[in-house]
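Work Package 3 (structural annotation) set out to generate three-dimensional models for the target panel prioritized at the project kickoff. During this period the team completed the workflow that converts sequence records into C-alpha cells, so that structures can be stored uniformly alongside our sequence database. As a representative example, we reproduce one entry of 89 residues exactly as it appears in the project archive.
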Amino acid sequence: MAEVKLTTALLRRAARMARQASETQRQLTKAFMGRYGVTYSEVDCDALIDTLDYGQGVVPTLSDCDRYMENSGVKPLSARKALGGGDEG
C-alpha cells in the first residue's frame, strides 16, 4: 500500500465527511422513528447496524429493512395501525 501523508486537505476531507455522516445519521434516525417508532440500534438489529453504522455487509432494500426490523420484534407503525394495534412492537 502506498504511503499516505497527513495533509490539511486530508484533514478537511475527513471533517467534511464526518459532518455529512452526522447529518445523514440524524435523517436516518428521524426516518426510522417515523416508520417504526424506534431506531435499529434500539432493537439491536445487527444486520442494519453492521451496514448503516460500520459500512459492512449488503445495503438493504426497504423490504429487507422491514424484515430485519420485524425479526428484531418491530413492524412498521403503518402495519401495526392497519392491524388495529397500538404502539407496541
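The mean pLDDT is 92.
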